[in-house]
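User: I'm curious whether this sequence folds into something compact or stays loose and floppy. Could you predict its structure so I can see for myself?
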Amino acid sequence: MKKLNSVLVLLMLAAVPALAGDDGESVVLPDVEMIDVPTAGILDYYGFMLKTRFYSEGGVLGGLNFGVQERLNLGASMSVDRLVGSDSRIKMRRPEIQVKFRFYDGGYYIPAMAVGYSGQGYYYDQNTRKYLEKGKGLYLVGSKEIGFPGLALHGGFNVPDFDNNYLFSFLGLNYTLEDKVAFMLESDSMFHSDDPSRFNAGIRFYVTPYFQLDMAVREIGRNGTFDNGAPRRAERIVQMRYNTSF
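Assistant: Here's the prediction. I'll summarize afterward.
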């Protein structure tokens, strides 16, 4: 019962404010991230975003992000394994920070550009105290609308682990239809065979201009194990985001 109450609280935090009135605006705010891939979009000055992700085996990832300056966003996130369900082995993981600075707004040929850092990874290994799927680490990302209105391409490079300094790459594509629904495809963790790339796909529903609901599948086509022997397979997730200002 305590687990159920905790989940209900998370749902209320994410969903209730979005239904608590509308000032008449109908323009959807720019997306700051897709499924796992960041974009060059940022929250406005004094902007605020609350994120909740439900992942495999009853896990919940919560995050907060703030627009602390005109081009600078700061945030933090934390995951709780096995929060949903009957398993009593609930485990809170250490908080991770996120920083993003948008240094160029883009032009006719050049995409908008941002540099950032994210320590939030996935599948935490208790023995090594590291994520089996590392966070983005230090990254550079560009975003630009291509082809026709509503179709955007996001891509960049990242260094997730400063112990080996491997350079990875990521690429995302999303198409937004009438500010109501978006279709997302992304390829993440590219370039190195010892940490195989991931292919993710999902749908984002813009329930209101401020509240988004995502349904996605990560690791499509994967059927193997991580280095520690843990199974590596496709994972279904649900995400909720609420954007506002303070």
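Summary: The radius of gyration is 18 Å. The first strand starts at residue 47 and ends at 55.
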